[in-house]
Prior knowledge:
The protein has about 375 residues and is mainly alpha-helical. It has one domain. Helix content is about 70%, strand content about 0%. The chain has helices at about 1-10, 15-25, 35-40, 50-70, 75-90, 95-120, 125-145, 145-165, 170-195, 210-235, 240-250, 255-285, 290-310, 320-330, 340-370.
Amino acid sequence: MFIKSWFIKSWFIKSAFIKRLLFTPFQGWWGRHDEANAKGTARPVLTQNGLRQCLRVAGGGTLGFVVSQLMGWNYGVFFTVFPMFLLGMVPILNGHIIRQFLANVSLNVLEVSLVVGLLKHMPLVMTLVVMGIFLFRFNLMAKGPLFLFGANGVLTLSILLHFASYPSVDLSDLLACNLVASGLAVFIAMLMHTLFPDVEARKPPPRATKTSSQIRHETLIGGLTATLSFVVFQIFDLQGSLSAQMATILVLFTLGYSGAKVSAGKRAIGTLLGCNLALLMQLFLYTQSHHFLLVMLLYWLGLMLFAREHIHEGGGSGIGFGGLTTLGILFGQSLGPQQDLVYSALYRFSSMSVALVLTLLAMASLHFVLNRWAPTRLPASNPA
């Protein structure tokens, strides 16, 4: 008891996620209450709908990974991250969501073909066009009804432009893999919702009312920061920092500086935990990585663990989703003894941390400037 009490009081274990991970790993799965709940202390409880969403996210992510590995397709990050995004960021699936997802894919292919194919030799013009695209997507996100279209567009466009900047990349192969991965993600999402449907109907989220100045503020702070991230990664030729660029985009989904500060901290914790879990898995699989069924099982367990935290957080880009995408990227590299995953994990976490700090500095500066101008000033009731 003394050891447990001291451990909980330490700074590391103050994280709610770590407490649940170490001391209540199974109680939350089936919604049971413990002695702390009886005394009135709130503990997250996984509902039946939440459990099924965990199964959908973990199953969908694993299936995308398995298909890409068995088929030997390039750009495995598309096949691991897209199902997680579609199943994790949106708890339901209907025709409106599918149309947004597929329409965004088609538009992204057209945008990247024109931007990279025609403007690659004109970096200034290319940057202005990319900024216009980002501003358009963040405007859709700020308004609300087409949030998924805008969010998926920003994330996918960033990944495509990141890969397309490599001199050795075949653009047609890149775009073809993106199309195949997107279609596969929709099929996987439909399959997972068929296998693990919700028990109870979900209530639609309340629609927030925003002023025109708030929409302009959120559009500009998101679009300009995303453009700055694109420029920095192009200038410094950071080809191996895909996860860092993804992190700079995902924290922008909060559409404000205050929300981004919280999201960045959670994203960093999720990435660190994801890297550490992947390292433990590699140690376990060091001489057994050729047993694909064992790799699948460990990958599914890791996704299930982070999916549980993602549901407890209420969705969004937090600790759970950070761990999910980190595992997806690392496993997309095919864990094996011939690869230095230690260096890969350390580089991924360090580059992501630096990228998040710089992103927050840029957002803080834009937040200050935009609030000095009446047409882009946030309302007093919403200082985010």
